Amino acid sequence: MASATGNHSSLRSSCSFPNLLVWLLNLSLLALSAAAVGPVLLLRPRPTPFGWALVSVHATTILSTLSALCAHLTHRPRLAAHAALAVAALSGHALASAAFFLRLDGSLELIGSNRDRREQLVLAFLEEVLLLAMFLVQAMALAATCVVSRRWEQEYREAETEKAAVARKRGRKMARVQAESAAAAEPGVKAVDEKVMRSSSGKKVHWANDDGFEEC
């Protein structure tokens, strides 16, 4: 039990800088994705389908960030689920950024904002900057999460190998102790057997009555 606890604590304490980096990147990504919802809702409080598409991109980013944070809190990385959400969020960031960068007027028309032109341009520029920042942070967070997850798996395998080696060593030691104990007890057992045999050979048995034997 103590060995398992020690291995678990060593896994938690190891790789501290990458773990801290993953935490900082995911917290930054969470803040960026929450802030990016603001310009979309400010452009149009009741979003159009294009606006809902942007909101869904930010929601996917938030989900991927929360999954990464939960995995680090529980120390049970679910790399496949997190990678799927992260790749979906990255794709959304890239497509939305390209839409704002290449077709700004068309994107503003799809959003259908009633604000004046200057406010629309400012909010669209802010949204584009946030999308680009989320793309970069999401990519770095995904890469760091993959590195940390591989490190966790490697250390877990090493801990299990060490535990198995300790168990084998303990088993060999117990077997050696039992063999030594048996070897040490063997002369005494032989002496007792010889004594019993001598005492048995010195007894005489004769018929006493019909009920059985009588030893003398």
Characterise the protein shown here.
With 216 residues, the protein is mostly helical. Helices cover 85% and strands 4% of the residues. It has helices at residues 2-13, 16-43, 49-74, 79-102, 104-111, 117-201, and strands spanning 205-209, 212-215. A two-stranded antiparallel ribbon has the order 1-2. A hairpin with a 2-residue loop joins strand 1 and strand 2. Helix 2 (16-43) runs antiparallel to helix 6 and helix 4 runs antiparallel to helix 6. The longest helix is centred in the last third of the chain and has 85 residues, at 117-201. The chain starts with a helix and ends with a strand. The relative contact order is 0.11.
Task: Summarize this structure as a short list of keywords or feature phrases.
disordered N terminus, 6 helices, about 220 residues, two-stranded antiparallel ribbon, about 85% helix, disordered C terminus, 2 strands, about 5% strand
Quick recap of the structure?
Keywords: Membrane, Transmembrane, Transmembrane helix. 85% of the residues lie in helices and 4% in strands.
Helix and strand topology:
Layout (H helix, E strand, L loop, with lengths): L1 H12 L2 H28 L5 H26 L4 H24 L1 H8 L5 H85 L3 E5 L2 E4 L1
Antiparallel strand pairs: 1-2
Rounded average pLDDT: 77
Find the count of extended strands (DSSP E, 2+ residues). Answer: 2
Q: Largest beta sheet, briefly?
A: 2 strands, antiparallel
- Give the number of helices: 6
Distance between the termini: 60 Å
Q: What is the gyration radius calculated from CA atoms?
A: 38 Å
Strand content: under 5%
Per the principal axes of the C-alpha atoms, what is the gross shape? rod-shaped
- Strand numbers in spatial order across the main sheet: 1-2
Regions with little confidence, pLDDT below 50 for 5+ residues: 1-14, 204-210, 212-216
SS-derived structural category: mainly alpha
The secondary-structure element order is HHHHHHEE
Q: What oligomerization state is this entry in?
A: single chain
Transmembrane segments: 20-43, 49-71, 83-102, 122-148
Keywords: Membrane, Transmembrane, Transmembrane helix
